[in-house]
Amino acid sequence: MVEEVEIAEIKKVLSDTKMILEHNEKLTIAKGEHFNMFSVLGIETKENKTHSAFLSELLNPKGSHGLGNVFLQLFLDSINHNKQFKAEEDKLFDAASAFVRVEKSVGNINLKNKSGENRSEASGGRIDIYLKDGNKNIISIENKIHADDQEAQIQRYYNHETSNNTVYYLTLKGEEPKEYSRLSLESGKDFFNLSYRDDIINWLELCLKEVPNFTGLREAINQYILLIKKLTHILNKEQQKPLNDIIVKHLEEAQYIADNYQNVLNKIREEFRKDLIKNLKRRLNSELFEVQSDLSIHQKYSKLWIHYKKRKEPFSFCVEPFSANGNGSGAMFVGLYGHEFALCDAIPEPNRLNDVWQHHIKLKTTEDNNLHLNSKNLLRILYESKSENYVKLLTHVLHQIISFIKDTNKYILPTDNKIPVENITKENLS
User: What pTM was computed for the model?
Assistant: First the structure.
């Protein structure tokens, strides 16, 4: 209970941790570790284009590194892959004869059996990292950075050549897959969890020892390790021990902070969504539009909809993701959504996201940065909802959304006397 937790102790934990983080930042700058090619190129969270591609290239005995199966063998050893099959010689994975594929198709997704009920027989999909050796032994790695699990995903991959296939579920911190993905399968028995924070970093540090004279390769692996440490919030070695000491000394307080961290962020994001909805309802013509939220704030594609009210148009406007997840990096945007893949060919130069997002723009802060609800500075502004900075940001975002609707609406609705096309808003935005 919160009453049992000494507020003074919590403040001390936070204060001491802040000092460690500040010192860690100074060390990071001194070592030149702030520069990271993956971050600079804006691809640090792209699962397939960055992470699966990079890992697969290292694992591939025919990869451009030119070192054969050295990295693959280190990987197998570091995760103890072959040790679990030591009693079954035919299941030992042979690194020398292996090949690697990214996004390997194992058939069309089928979630039902002939009776249409039993999802344990689900099949198909695209396996992120797929390895197969000359003895037909398979390693399937499902790679998750921020993406949600898919329906029966682990079950589907488990069902692919089950007797020869070992499935790994790779996440930043070694989390379990959702129940709707694994169904009745058990981790450690039917599939195995891996983490970037522990398993991948440990493996990559072993890889570094094999490339002391390969400058470009060594630096690429170093840069990737730094990226993983950034994504998993790992400190420099000099600062990790002091932080560990604080946590162990204040285990109860640290647990309380950890348990409440995500709830606080979700509340800030939800209040921001509510304010946007309230103000959009006030500004938009209620005869033409209705505004509503969709999905809980913690869900990947949590959004708000702006639907056409009286006309049954196959299009809606939408703002997402309020979860700080989805859309690649999690940056927010306003877009035109085509229900059931409806197309709007009239837009002169559509900025498409995919087959359903006909046109979109990224939302910006008042400093012209991408609006991303993981930004610590932005979250602080959103928390102070009565402040001048908050009102300024809210107005700025509203202006972008409504301007997008005005600019796009004329290509959707025909101009006639029955529809108030010109009167998108009840009042002018200042």
Answer: 0.65
3-state secondary structure of 370: strand
Q: What is the pLDDT along the chain (430 residues), one digit of tens a residue?
A: 445 546 777 777 777 777 766 666 676 666 666 677 777 777 777 788 899 999 999 999 999 999 999 999 999 999 999 877 655 777 789 999 999 999 999 999 998 754 445 778 899 999 999 999 999 999 999 999 877 788 999 999 999 999 999 999 999 989 999 899 999 999 999 999 999 999 999 999 999 999 988 888 999 999 999 899 888 887 666 667 787 888 788 788 888 788 888 899 999 999 999 999 999 999 998 888 999 998 899 888 899 999 998 766 789 999 999 998 876 667 899 999 998 888 888 888 889 888 889 899 999 999 998 999 988 889 999 999 999 999 999 999 999 999 999 999 888 865 443 444 456 676 544 4
Contacts of 219 (CB under 8 A, 6+ apart): none
User: Which residues touch 189 (CB under 8 Å, ≥6 apart)?
Assistant: none
What are the CA-CA distances from residue 276 to residues 92, 272, 301, 366, 389 (Å)?
57, 6, 17, 16, 15
SS3 318: strand
Cβ contacts of 414 within 8 Å, gap of 6 or more: none
CA atoms within 13 A on the CB side of 299: 8
Comparing CA positions, the residue from 189, 122, 175 lying closest to residue 147 is: 175
Closest by CA to 303, choosing from 326, 289, 319, is 319
SS3 317: strand
Helix/strand/coil percentages in the chain, nearest 5: 45, 15, 40
Strands of 97-191, DSSP E: 99-105, 126-132, 138-143, 165-171
At residue 359, what are phi and psi to the nearest 5 degrees?
A: -160, 145
What is the C-alpha separation between 141 and 191, in angstroms, rounded? 10
Name the residue type at position 209: K
